[in-house]
Amino acid sequence: MNRSIKQILVDATEAIRQSGSTTPRLDAEVLLSHVLNNDRCWLVAHDDHELSDSEISSFNELIKQRTKSVPIAYLTGYKEFYGRDFKVSPNVLIPRPESETIIDLLKEHPTALQGKPKLVDVGTGSGCLGITAKLEIPELEVSLIDISSSALDLARENAKTLNADVSFILGDLLENYHQKADIIIANLPYVDRDWQVSTDTQHEPDLALFARENGLELINKLIVQIPSKIKKDGFILIEADPRQHEEIIDHASKNNLQVIKVLDFIVALSPRKHPV
Question: In the chain, what are the domains?
Answer without folding.
Answer: 3-68 (1.10.8.10), 90-271 (3.40.50.150)
